[in-house]
Amino acid sequence: MEPIRWGVLSTAGIGIKAMLPALNAASNCELTAIASRQNDRAETVARQFGIGSAYGSYDELLADPEIDAVYNPLPNHLHVPVTIQALKAGKHVLCEKPLAMTEAEARQVAEAASVAGRQVAEAFMICHHPQWVRARDLLREGRIGKPSAIQVLFSYSNTDPENVRNKPDIGGGGLYDIGCYAVRAGRWLFGSEPEAVCAVMDRDPEFGTDRLTSGMIRFPDGTHLSFTVATQSALAQQMTILGAEGYMLFDAPFNCPPDHAARLIIDDGSDLLGKGRQVEILPPANQYQLQAEEFSRAIRSGEPPLNGPADAICNAATTEALTRAAESGGWELVTT
């Protein structure tokens, strides 16, 4: 089967660090073109990664008939308009999270994909990692009994005023950058949709972005997800799934290095010292490569991709409700 020919919009850091190497390594992908608003920058990156075509504008890349799919890692405020532009140009689109910042915007993308007859997916690479797949399988098997709660901590430190994550007018802030992972984690692992949320935020007085956000998400059957995300704190990633008969701990849950054999810890809760603990070692995996391969297979098969439009709508509705909750100081319903 012919590989999917990919183009990448911009020379963003996430592309250079993760997606460009992933696309080059993927078995069913061909990294064909890259675009930047600075042509010399596009040419430099093209040479670095052995990419055949370099463009000095996004429009030029989208007009290239040799490209089947594009990866959109642009700043958050450009996810929706550029993704819709790409769909109208006949391209399939893998868009960085958050695909949209509101439910209404996510629905616009879903409609554009339907009209164009093209695939679109939100780039939650975590759902492709073996430790996430194994954890969900174990939950379905009842390994820790009925799951009741998930706790997430995701933090890093970034105080660069020029960084897009610190600019509120283009979708910066902790909730949209990394809080969306916590939302996706609950929806993925519980296998259900949020009912209501509450949240508190601390905003940077200069940037205006939320630098510390904590939230609670209520799911059906009384299950909860609680999370804290921070953009000006120590580097940390933790996730715990609590069940009636045990709990699971993830190993670097969101940014597990591709050469690291992740350890999924399953504890039966028989004591507080871990005597009932078992550790499953998962093979090293590049979750970005797995993501590109799965999306390319969906394009060829016509089957819905993982993290497709319906998922993006639910994720956006939840993060939107969390923003409202932080402003209102109360519980907000999640409606889709």
From TrEMBL:
Pfam families documented for this protein: GFO_IDH_MocA (PF01408), GFO_IDH_MocA_C3 (PF22725)
Every Gfo/Idh/MocA-like oxidoreductase N-terminal domain range: 5-122
Keyword ATP-binding on entry: no
GO MF term set: nucleotide binding; oxidoreductase activity
Residue stretches making up the GFO/IDH/MocA-like oxidoreductase domain: 133-247
Keyword Oxidoreductase listed: yes
Protein keywords: Oxidoreductase
Superkingdom of origin: Bacteria
Record family assignment: Belongs to the Gfo/Idh/MocA family.
Protein name: Gfo/Idh/MocA family oxidoreductase
